[in-house]
Amino acid sequence: MDASLQTSPPQASSPWFGHPRGLVVLFLTEMWEKFSFYGMKALLIYYMIRHLQFPQADASLIYGAYTGGVYLTPIFGGVIADRWLGRRRAILIGGSLMALGHFTLAFESAFFAALALIALGNGLFLPNLPSQVGDLYAEDDPRRGGSYNVYYVGVNLGALLAPLVCGTLGEVYGWHVGFGAAGVGMCLGLAIYALGARHLPPDRAPAPPAGTPAAAPSGARRFVPLLLVGLAVVVFRSGYEQSGNTLAVWAEAGVDRALGSITVPVTWMQSLNPLFVFLFTPFVIAGWRRAAERGREPAPLTKMALGAAGVALSYLMLALVAATHGSAPVSMAWVGAFFVIYTLAELYILPVGLGLFARLAPRGMGATVIAAWFLASFGGNLLSGVVGRHLQGLGPAGFFVLLGAITGAAALALFALRPLLRRV
């Protein structure tokens, strides 16, 4: 690759939708990457249970291990990018490995190898794309804070389209057709990123070696607060991530999906969360902006605590519905109501946490610190597989109460950490 691709600054150009054009490039790249990731993910649990004939408990454990793995590898990918490859090369190499992994799923004997390819590619891709968002703005640019929520819409637009396209293709025309469509989406994302490179910020200078005067003061005092926030997020995600795991398993048999003479494909329900992210984000950002103008915008950890509490509330509502219906199928309207609360709460914690970690990253360590945020996602996803094994033993109502308790505990921990973060 030409060295100019790594170091040249973005060309001056008029903004799009009030933001730098580079944000649009990153938005669309992330949209197609998430189309591929969530398209495959929408099919994964059903593919293991229906086609590969794995028991539900084992399938949920594998699902949790895989989704955890894709958040473990970024900690290495972030360091590799910051020290050697640079962010742009890491993104192109990582995206290529992910596309190869999606296409490899066409071979049943290579199932676990394909999952490993996707996880390794994701390690290079995932921390490096969002670490470029903040570099598009000056430190005092008022658009900078909301840019991560705009970027998060791209994440969820891809996640919205993925179950509708890949899920439908997989259920109607065969699993491998759905997985292949996910691979095509990843290739489109890579093409957009390469063609839009002139609008992106240059890579930062490499991080100073550990222990040098430039690195020590800025990193050490921020480490403990970020570590504790990350641990709280691990607990939160062990409950939050059940929407694509045990909640999807329950929805297949426990939800009345009849719409007149049509039965709604179960994978379509996984589009509700990203659909609501797309619809609600502008209102959430506008509300925060108005609060900021009055000097009353909540601090990042306050927002995150409220978000975790909202997810707990959504699970407790679902527990009540499941308990009152017994063995009778639940109306899809209740699933829609669940995702309304769940999604509004998610907007208060996940993009806010991503922006918080990016903001506190020392110079030259942007991808590494973003990777640390995703490392919390690794722990949470891995733990979610263990939690998911209790669905059959507790039953739907008891299991949803457990999820409410887990995410509620995370909310309390985040709220308690506010004074510590305020010092940083």
UniProtKB/TrEMBL annotation:
UniProt topology in membrane: Multi-pass membrane protein
UniProt keyword list: Cell membrane, Membrane, Peptide transport, Protein transport, Transmembrane, Transmembrane helix, Transport
Location(s) in or outside the cell: Cell membrane; Membrane
Residue span(s) of domain Major facilitator superfamily (MFS) profile: 22-422
Membrane-spanning ranges: 31-49, 61-81, 111-129, 150-170, 176-195, 223-240, 275-292, 304-326, 332-358, 370-391, 397-417
Domain of life: Bacteria
Pfam families referenced in this protein's UniProt entry, alphabetically: PTR2
Keyword Transmembrane listed: yes
Family listed: Belongs to the major facilitator superfamily. Proton-dependent oligopeptide transporter (POT/PTR) (TC 2.A.17) family.
Protein's name according to its UniProt entry: Peptide MFS transporter
